Amino acid sequence: MKLLIEKIQNSSEQTKKRWLFIFSAVSMIIIISLWLVYLNYSLGKTSEIAKDEQTEIGFFKVFQTGLKVVGSSLSQKAGDLIYKIMGERTVLMK
After folding, report:
1. CB 15 within 8 Å of CB 8
2. Domain segments of the chain as ranges
3. How far is CA 69 from the centre of its chain?
4. 14 and 3 in contact (C-beta within 8 Å)?
5. What is the distance between the alpha carbons of residues 15 and 42, in angstroms, rounded to a whole number?
6. pLDDT for 94
7. Which residue in 36, 3, 4 sits closest to 23, CA to CA?
8. Which residues are listed as membrane-spanning (predicted)?
9. Residue 47: per-residue pLDDT
10. Chain segment 47-87, per-residue pLDDT in tens
């Protein structure tokens, strides 16, 4: 390996660029392959867990319900606030 590196160092610029391209391509292929293996493994695990937990309430369902409650409460409070503001500024003329 050391001899190969020395040979590349002593070669022309065109040869250095060619080796750079080759090593970069091989590195990208290795990294993408490892990433795909990991992605396949993690998605497989996730689908198995999802099958086992279909009867349980999920995080997003709980989060959605909480947002509905908070939204309803905020809507009611905003309506009360607007009613108070409009009530205080209304002048009745007789």
Report:
1. yes
2. 1-56, 62-94
3. 26
4. no
5. 40
6. 67
7. 4
8. 20-41
9. 65
10. 666 665 555 667 778 888 888 888 888 888 888 877 777 76
